[in-house]
């Protein structure tokens, strides 16, 4: 699920902004809404995101804190592969992964 950059961007957007509609997510990640919707369907099947329906609109959110941590850990691991001391090991690091 984390092998696609668009899905990572979606998860980070949900982490940073909370519950969002497909159209708002599409704006944030810079992809067409149908493409974002397909990625969200995969993330939903993997139980990384959950939905809330308000009338005809569907809003997406991270399923739980573990989904948030999964992405943070993936980014931390990628930082280790770059060599040197990863940013998250510096004393001033706050503990949140960014991309």
Provide an overview of this structure.
- The protein is α+β, with helices and mostly antiparallel strands and 99 residues long.
- The protein has a single domain, classed as Arc Repressor Mutant, subunit A (Orthogonal Bundle).
- It is built from 4 helices and 3 strands, in the order H-E-H-H-E-E-H.
- A hairpin with a 2-residue loop joins strand 2 and strand 3.
- The longest helix is centred in the last third of the chain and has 17 residues, at 65-81.
- The radius of gyration is 14 Å and the shape is elongated.
Primary descriptors:
4 helices; 3-stranded antiparallel beta sheet; 99 residues; Arc Repressor Mutant, subunit A
Radius of gyration: 14 Å
Secondary-structure element order, as H and E? HEHHEEH
Q: How are strands sequenced across the largest beta sheet?
A: 1-3-2
Fraction of helical residues: 40-55%
CATH superfamily: Winged helix-like DNA-binding domain superfamily/Winged helix DNA-binding domain
Uncertain ranges: none
Structural class: alpha+beta
- N-to-C span: 17 Å
CATH fold call: Arc Repressor Mutant, subunit A
Largest sheet: 3 strands, antiparallel
Provide mean pLDDT, rounded. Answer: 86
Q: Give the total of domains.
A: 1
Based on the structure given, which CATH architecture is correct? Orthogonal Bundle
CATH class: Mainly Alpha
Compute the number of strand runs: 3
How many individual helices?
A: 4
């Amino acid at each position: 699920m984390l092998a696609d950059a668009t899905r990572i961007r979606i998860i980070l957007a949900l982490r940073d902004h909370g519950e969002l509609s497909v159209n708002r997510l599409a704006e944030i990640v810079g992809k067409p809404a149908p493409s974002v919707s397909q990625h969200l369907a995969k993330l939903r099947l993997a139980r990384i995101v959950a939905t809330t329906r308000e009338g005809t609109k569907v809003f997406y959110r991270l399923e739980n804190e573990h989904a948030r941590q999964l992405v943070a850990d993936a980014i931390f691991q990628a930082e280790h592969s770059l060599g040197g001391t990863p940013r998250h090991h510096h004393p001033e690091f706050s503990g949140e992964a960014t991309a």
